[in-house]
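$ fold --in a.seq
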Amino acid sequence: MDARTFLQLVRAPAGFTVLGDATAGMAATGRRGIRARLGLPVASVLLYWGGMALNDAADAELDRVERPERPIPSGRVSRRAAIATAGGLTIAGIAVAGLTGGRTSLAVALPLAGSIWAYDLAAKRGALGPLVMAACRGLDVLLGAGADGAAAATRPALVMAAHTASVTALARGEVHGTHPAVASVAAASTAGSALAAVRPRADAAGVVSWVAAARFAVPTLRAQAGAIGTPSGPVVRDATRRGIFAMVPLQAALTARAGRPVDAVVLLAIDALGLLLTRRGTRGREIT
């Protein structure tokens, strides 16, 4: 597997969308320490990439029909190699979480990894699929908070989980289209998530939270409104992608809400970089 194929297999640019989960969780609990603040986002990315590789292995037969350009159906990588890649990245993510976040983060990393694999291998196409994916995202926020700080990070975990559930439900119409009601629910969830993420104080953190929330909500609602009016596959696909990449400014808003505006500004810078890379190369589809 060459580097280009690997990056396509794991949807590398979409890995930016999980960097801020742990940051929001740490901000909510007041958790500090440079090792955790740098290492736990890396653990999230590794687990995400592992989920992406596993997703392609699980979807190999379907992708031969719907997305023949992907690495497995195009013959650039075998299904076995994709599963091995998924396993290696998952183990690496768990290890990094334990080494940088200690036992309290390791206690979250294990069920997070299990939820990712359960989604890809069993729950993805079932009625509970969006809820299992939402659990993955919520646990990723709690990875930053740690098991002993889970209660304090309830708000950011639930906000990220709710947005993830709505986008995952919308994503099911990427090929054949969806019902306007599904897109409407996604739009309502976006509006609610934005309001829940802002800081009700007129300080620097409050200003950053409002800016980040606007950056999250405005383009996302615009894309979802298009899906409500024209719920065809291509329009839904664009709305789904917008919802995925909107994760970062939502994380930034939640981080600022917790009183860490500098960390939030860093996430907004990551959002800008991710947008640049997305315009240049491969975009991610699934959320893990």
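$ fold --in b.seq
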Amino acid sequence: MGLEQLKESAKSLITLGPARKDHWIGLRTAVGVFAPLIFLMAIDRLDLVVFAVFGAFVGVYGRVDGYWNRLRMQVRSSALLFGVIAAALAASHLWIVHDQPELKAWQIVGATTLVAGLCSVLAGFLRLRPAGSLFHIFAFAAIASISNPVPAWQGLLVAVLTMMLALVIGAAGALGQWSSLWQRTPLPPLSDNVRSAIWWEGLFYILTAGIAGALANIVGSRLEAGHNYWAMVAAVVPLVGHTTKLRMRRGIHRVLGTLVGLVLMALLIVLNPPLWLLLTLIGFFQFMAEMLVMRNYFMAQIFVTPLALVGVSVMSGLSTALLYDRMVETVIGSVVGILGVLLGSWFGGIKRRQAGIDPPNPGKQF
């Protein structure tokens, strides 16, 4: 890498992209996750927090202009997320062997790998944005890993109610704007190139998530790191982007942003704030993540890291072990993801030469 490339890479860490009314999506997602968490604390049911957090992911799919268009996107994302959460609960109750840690680790990786590929393809055909299956990987693996899951109906009820809240918040701005409420943008039909690209993307999600999870089990276990699915999440991060350069940059930003985010998380562990403040911080971190994710992925990760760690440790308590696990698994996953991008670029070059056209990119065509 030359000096100019190093300068460009360093500059990308502090350069903000153009604003796109990010404060509104940040506010909607922050309220969408904070309100259910405070309610669960009030009724002393923090064992259901994880279902509220993952149900609130529907809010992330609200970065769409036009209230009808947004509702369409969020209803579709709700259906897919509900299916993932239901499958995770079923796996945890009926299939995962929780009292055999080694077997459990491989069961989680195997099932989550299938979810990675299947949800990537479904997200493509449903035209979901953000694209890919990152949120579905995270939700499925985290819920399936719970050793003593709550009754399935309770988890699903909390998830559904949180999703409904996200839909209401997403449509709340339509009050007083009835004339534009029903205006919709028809989705163009998917071309053969885009359909092919969606299937190829699904294959690469399977490969990167599966390899990252396997390495996390083999290498991560020797390094005494848990949470193998964090590596799987990190591995698919670089797969989103219009160019190889941007995809690789996302992988690097993921690692560097996680490092800085871990410093912020360490400060929280030292301060050990009361529960109500932790839940408030989850809302704040969600707001900042959505404010920055489209403008600077490195900066967004600074807030995504404590958001994820606090979200999964509210019940068990903050622990320094989480810091080590997050770093090890993120490095494993990001390396695999970047190698997957390079492999995809090489493969795309072959396909392009064979067809004599630019490789299909679903993100550019809808």
